[in-house]
Every structure is written in C-alpha cells, then in structure tokens.
Amino acid sequence: MTTIDYREFYIDGGWQTPVGSDVIDVHSPTTESSIGSVPSASTADIDRAVAAARSAFDAPDGWATLHPRQRAEILERFATELEARAAETSRRVTIQNGMPIWLAEQFEGGFPAVLLRYFSQMMVESPEVDERPGMLGGTARVTRQPIGVVAAIVPWNVPQAITFLKLAPALAAGCTVVLKPAEETVLDAFLMAEAAVAAGLPSGVLNVIPGGREIGAYLVGHPDVDKVSFTGSTAAGRSIAETCGRLLRPVTLELGGKSAAILLDDVDLDASMESLFGATFLNNGQICWLNTRVLAPRSRYGEVVDALTGLAESLKVGDPLDPETKVGPLVSARQRERVEGYIAKGKSEGARLTTGGGRPTGLDSGYFVQPTVFADLDNTATIAREEIFGPVLSVIPFGDEAEALAIANDSEYGLGGSVWSSDLERAAAVAGRVKSGTVGVNHYSNDPVAPFGGIKNSGMGRELGPEGLHAFQHLHTVYLPPAG
Ligand code: NAD
C-alpha cells in the first residue's frame, strides 16, 4: 500500500519547511502497518504559526476587518473544496482511527462544510450593533467582536467534525486559528489544509501544526494566543484550565463523559434498538457523549440485558472500510490495553459479563475488542464510574424514576444522556432533570442548532448553536451620551 507522506506544514497560507526534523508516523489500527507520516512541530514552528495568525488578525485590513459577507464568500469556497475531498477525508479518518466508513462519511466527510456554511450564515444574519436605550438617558451601543488568535486543540476520535466545531465559528467570527490535531489523526488535517490552500484562504487565517501534548501545552500558554478551545480528556483539560486560569485566558473545554441512558418501564425496546446502538456503541465506543451506562427498570431488567446482549452480538466487527462493519478497531494498542484493563476490572469487581469481553476471533491484526455488556452491577463499580472509551456497556437496575435520576446524576461527569419511553412528554420531563449539558429522548445526537457541552468534569463552555459562535467573540460596549 502506498503511504501518505507530507514534508511541510501549512503555515501563513502556504507550505513551509519545518524547523526540526521530528516525524509523526501514522499507523493503521486495522492492519497495524504504517500508512503515512507528517512532520512533528517544534516550539519554533508553533512560534511561526502563532505569529502568522497574529499578523493576519491584527492587520488593519485583515480577516477580522472583513464584512461577514466577505468572509462567508471565502468560507463558501473552503466548504466547496472540502466537499470535493469528502470521500478521501472519510477514508483517511477510517484508516487512521478505525471509525466505520459509513459513519466517517456522515461525521467527517459531510459535517465540516455544513458547519462552515451554518456559522458563516449566522454571522451574515447577526445584527451588527445592539443599541439599547440607557437608564441614564444615553444609549449603550453593544457589538460582538472577534476574540483574536485561537488555539484549537482536538483529539483523534472524531477529528474533522470536532475540528470544525471550532474552526467554523472561529473563522466566521473573524478570528484566526492555529490548529493542533492529535498525533493519531494528522492525515485528514493535512488534507483539510490542502482544501484551505485551494480555496485561497488568506495567509495566516488558518495554520495546522501537529505535535504531541508538550507542543499542545506550549501553544496553550503562548503569549500571542487570545483564546483556547480544547476537546479531549478531562486530565488534559484540567491542566489547560490551570494555564488559562493563570493567564486569565478565555477557554472552552469539551472533556470526557460517562452518560446514562434511562430506559423507562414503558420503553418499546424493539423499536429502540437501532437508536440505542447509535447512543451506545457508535464509533467503536469512542465518543465522549456515549451513553455507556444503561439504566433499566428492575421489572424489565432481564429483558433489557438480553436485548443489549443480542444487539452487541449482532454487530459486525471488522475492517472499518467495509460498509457493513458496525464496530471497527480501537485507535491504538494503548487504547485497547486500557479498555481490556477495564473489562478485567469489571470482572474482578463481580459484574456479570453477558457477552464479549475478549478479542474477536478470525481477525489476524488490528486493535479489536468485542462489543461487551456487563450486568448485575451497581453505580459504584469502577466500570460504571470511569470513562472507558471503548465498546463496553454497564446495565444497571433501578426501582422508580427518582432512583433512575439519582443514579444517572451520581457521576463526576455531565455531558450527555438519554431517556427512552413510549410517552415522549414523560421522557422529556425526566430528561429535564438529568444533570448534564445535553440529553436525548428516544435517541441521542447533537443538533448543530443547539449548544453542546458539559458540566462538572465534562468541561465548560459550549459549542454549536449561536452560543458556539459567541465563544469566539467578546462583547464591546460604547456609552453614547444623552442627546443634546
Ligand atoms: P487527550 O486529552 O490525551 O488528547 C487530546 C488532544 O489534546 C490531543 O491533540 C493531545 O495532543 C492534546 N493534549 C493532551 N494533553 C495536552 C495538554 N496538557 N496541553 C495541551 N494539549 C494537550 O485525549 P485523547 O485520549 O486523545 O481523546 C479522548 C478524550 O477526549 C476522551 O476523554 C473523550 O471523552 C474526550 N472527548 C471529548 C469530547 C467532547 O466534546 N466533550 C469529544 C471527543 C473526545
């Protein structure tokens, strides 16, 4: 197989030779062989990228000064170039992180252009000024201004969609961006940079600099960065928040989760199975908002355990490039070790394994783990409390709705969740009492029009919706004096 190799970084509108000679080798989690390489950034490369973003933002006729319509025209060209590369983007994500190709086509190939157009249009339609009659006789003129140079740091699990949760509102708002992709998924980020070049994005507006966590930490603390937008683990988020706290630097953090699906006693299980798959095992269990705790009424506990066991056993595990595959490999050997460690912990703490728990037979290579279901545990079990980030569900029994809510809310996380019932209003009422940023009824998916994000250890701030745009703006008030 030919490998995909890059030798330069996308900085200041073009391809630039790295200062250092370090290289990131990318491996397929399916074949375990090398599939490409990109240069790994040094701090000097970060300095160049931030300087480019800084001048593009500060220039008197720079990106921030364009009318939103002018930015929208350029971002429309970017969206078109991304669409022209959508199939290859999806393929690259799938071969790097194991995301099933049909899902990559939706999330990774399709979503970036949708988000660019959504936020560009929102900026075009936003009122330029908000004039408020003052209480003291004058007028307060309030505007939203782009916040400046943004450091965007993203993980490997849904790399392009998460990138554009940040890039689309930031660029539409008039900010400039230095993007640091995760080392596991860089080939899609470089293809995105090719689209930016083809679209003629002005110099310095977007810069793509891959590297490890030290490089990420350096970028977060860089004196010329005005805002940090981070998605990743809670541990990294905490460290980034500490830096931003010290610098009084605005930060948005989208972190881990341990969300609960509450199945009420009138749930129609047969009708729910496909949506339950989407809420639990999607992307091989590697999405932050997945509902990996399934709470089932005691009266129907056995039935729910059997249904989820059957679901797990029905999922085709294998090559993620095969459109029939529902569960691909985990991203890395390290991630598989972590997931297997949790499976061992579940067993040793006395939970009952109803299916899975091992590596699938017949797959000679790849970091595969069988879809796994644990029953007969309560919410104190380690596997019910910690984020596993793999295809492992815990089915926990409850008595009544109050107990279901108490269990769902007994978590250090608060990102997603869902409530399942034949009565939508009943489910929505229960959903309203789940302590997390977002909750679905009879399904879970984030809709771009509404704010997405978490509370507690799941982070702070929101992406998507108008709130996702406001995260890249600051408010500016001019007090006009009373007339006469
Ligand atoms: P990670 O935190 O190790 O890495 C994420 C990114 O941050 C990578 O680019 C990494 O290089 C960088 N990074 C790591 N430490 C850093 C530091 N101290 N300073 C600056 N940058 C740093 O996370 P991961 O294991 O790659 O990703 C999985 C995690 O991401 C899971 O916990 C998952 O729940 C979370 N996640 C959250 C969301 C959300 O929207 N809430 C979405 C996807 C993933």
UniProtKB/TrEMBL annotation:
Domain (Aldehyde dehydrogenase): residue spans on this chain: 20-478
Keyword set includes Oxidoreductase: yes
Top-rank taxon: Bacteria
Presence of the UniProt keyword Oxidoreductase in the record: yes
Record: active site: E254
InterPro entries noted in UniProt: Ald_DH/histidinol_DH, Ald_DH_C, Ald_DH_CS_GLU, Ald_DH_N, Aldehyde_DH_dom
UniProt protein name: Aldehyde dehydrogenase
Origin organism lineage: Bacteria, Bacillati, Actinomycetota, Actinomycetes, Mycobacteriales
